[in-house]
Amino acid sequence: MVMVISVTGQNMGAMRLNDALASFDSTTHDLHLVNANQNPPVCRIVSRKDAFDKARAKKRPEELDLEVKKLILKGGKKARKSLAETHGIEALQQQRKSHANVLKEVEVNSNISNHDLEIKLRKARDMLEKTCRVQFSIIDKKDGKSQGLLAYIEDHLKPISRIAGHPNVSGRKLQATFVPTKTQ
């Protein structure tokens, strides 16, 4: 037994659950539980469109905030300045220019050729100059060259970066994260 409230808010009385489900068009309406603690539990017949509109209205402030941020970033200089002052979104503009939170991964084998390594290092250098963090993963092919290769990579990237923390060894994989030393 459940207590049923209609779409208009009228109390339809207590009825069996099957009767309550049969009392409305299930293609356009749903039966929502309002209060399970009451005896009998209270259910309401709700239009699916109304339920969807309410759910969308709850999300609306976040979406509106996102739209304002997009307008600030896309708008002209005056529009950005006035909107940024009123909404306090100057930090967002700075964050857009910075890639400091982006982690790029470069994976190499310990028996990589010199030419291929130079290409990977050039790409890593470009990413570091864009203020991205770069994680090198060196997969050891049972020849023990991964530590020497990491030392070579560190020497090559030393002018623009440093290793964050200690290199991590897990199984055959050696990982080291490089962070840029210069910020633009």
What would the average pLDDT be, to the nearest integer? Answer: 80
Biggest β-sheet: strands ordered side by side in the sheet: 2-1-4-3
**Major sheet summary line:** 4 strands, mixed
Strand content: 25-35%
- What fraction, in percent, of the residue positions are helical? 40-55%
Overall form: rod-shaped
Assembly state here?
single chain
Structural account:
- It is rod-shaped, with a radius of gyration of 30 Å.
- The mean pLDDT is 80.
- It is an alpha/beta fold and 184 residues long.
- The strands form two sheets. It has a four-stranded mixed sheet with strand order 2-1-4-3.
- It has helices spanning 17-22, 48-74, 77-87, 90-97, 114-129, 146-157, and strands at residues 2-5, 11-15, 29-35, 42-47, 103-109, 133-139, 161-170, 173-180.
- It has six helices and eight strands.
- The N and C termini lie far apart (68 Å).
- The longest helix has 27 residues, at 48-74.
Per-chain topology:
Elements: E1 2-5, E2 11-15, H1 17-22, E3 29-35, E4 42-47, H2 48-74, H3 77-87, H4 90-97, E5 103-109, H5 114-129, E6 133-139, H6 146-157, E7 161-170, E8 173-180
Parallel strand pairs: 1-4, 5-6
Antiparallel strand pairs: 1-2, 3-4, 6-8, 7-8
Helix pairs in contact: 2-3
In short:
The protein is of the alpha/beta class and 184 residues long. The chain has six helices and eight strands; from the N terminus they run E-E-H-E-E-H-H-H-E-H-E-H-E-E.
Summary tags:
single chain, 184 residues, alpha/beta, 4-stranded mixed sheet, 8 strands, 43% helix
